Amino acid sequence: MRLREIPLTAWIGILGILFAFFCAVFASLIAPFGEREIVAGVWEPANELYLLGTDNLGRDLLSRLIYGAQTTLFVSLAASILSFSIGIFLSFTAAVSGGPIDQGLSRLNDLMMSIPTLIFALVVLAVLPQNIFILIAVMAILDSTRVYRLGRAVALDIAVMEFVEAAKLRGEGRMWIIFREILPNALSPLLAEFGLRFAFSILFLSTLSFLGLGIQPPAADWGGMVKDNKDGIIFGIQAALIPGGAIAALAVCVNMVVDWLLKRTSSLKGGRGDA
Fold this sequence. Notes:
Elements: H1 8-25, H2 27-30, H3 61-97, H4 99-114, H5 117-127, H6 132-159, H7 162-169, H8 174-210, H9 222-229, H10 241-265
Helix pairs in contact: 1-3, 1-10, 3-4, 3-6, 3-8, 4-6, 5-6, 6-8, 8-9, 8-10, 9-10
């Protein structure tokens, strides 16, 4: 693949994602103030010292936005990686094993998917201790059900191909077939799905934080910043719109890249998709 073949929309998405990750990685170096530092009055307008103004407690909004990128991206990426690890391993195991294992895992997955995701997350997070690792685990488990459906559909298509049958006749073990035969041939559609799940994780985390069960204050994350500053909207203060715009912009950038990946993989076999 040549760089010139990448469309403009995909380049915009890639640059937007790279910028967000740059801010997240170097937050402590590029943020003008500390994450929790109160620097001025409440909801100060933007000026030469506070480029985006201040929030409901007088903290620099730009600094909080940069540190919020660190928290939001770390939690969303960790949850996406964990959900894919769980979903792909279980779905490929079900597709290769068949029989009772496939039926048992698939019915359990259907049961999990029948429960509304947000309601389930709110109930579980309200009962369990509010911890970032528990938050990541809950998000990953809920999202792995969607990954399982796609992974199983793709794996079932690949599992009937001749090279997989040849591996079985050679006496290769189940793990060999999963990781050496099926996974390399399923990477393209799975990478596109990973982008979609990552975008969903960003939105889901922001929703949980807005409802008070995500990232806990005083730590900065974009959903929590919207919650903290929402009361200012009725007074014409736009502090809540800035992190909201950041969430929307990052989600759009991810979707631009995913759309390009889907177009590249649309001609590949292995896509019963959402079957």
